[in-house]
Amino acid sequence: MGNARRRAAGIAVALAATATLLSGCTGNTTPDPTPSASTTPSTTPAPSTSTTPGPSTSTTPRSNSTITPVPGVDYDGGTVPDTCDGLITTSKWKDSFLRAPLNDPAIVGDPVEIPKSVFTPVLQPDGKRLYCVWRDPRADITNVTIAVQVVDSSKAFAVLQGLQGFQCEHLAEGYRCQRISTDNQYGVETGVTYFTRGDIAIHISQANVPTSGLLDDVMAHVF
Known about the structure:
- The chain is of the alpha+beta class and about 220 residues long.
- About 25% of the residues lie in helices and about 20% in strands.
- It has helices at about 1-30, 90-95, 105-110, 155-160, 215-220; strands spanning about 130-135, 145-150, 165-170, 175-180, 190-195, 200-205.
- A hairpin with a 2-residue loop joins strand 3 (about 165-170) and strand 4 (about 175-180).
- About 25% of the residues are buried.
């Protein structure tokens, strides 16, 4: 009888140990909970080393009161990004103009002073603006500048139509004017591009920096 009781006790201990192992496996196969917003992978492009945002004169949503439909320029779905990094695909330009400082006070001032352009007379007074300059203060001319702002669509279109010395065309539901030339003093290529689509205007200037596809990249982030 003593031997029988000892064998029964040993079987009970073995069964208990087996149940404990199965219980542990079941717990490990439970699906992970849904990730929180802080752990969900972001699809935002990787930021550049310079993350200083361009200035915004207003965050008030743009008014549609001055929007007049214009054939080929009546798209009204664009937005002005909050930061310069949100304006472009940073990974695409990290080995190009993004190596230069962004909005260095020695270049743009402190506070930032946004220079006038052909779009200045047609800006919406309550519209948001973003101004980004990548330029080393030690550089004589090399730079890339991008300005995005809210304008009166019909007037902006008319302004571009009146430009002289630019090649202009309807493009991607908007209107683009571009001029490529050579700087007389430094002998490097310079370019100026104006684009308007709906009530969004884009102004890109560049000097001594290859930027093929830059307007397309900006448009992909704005529209």
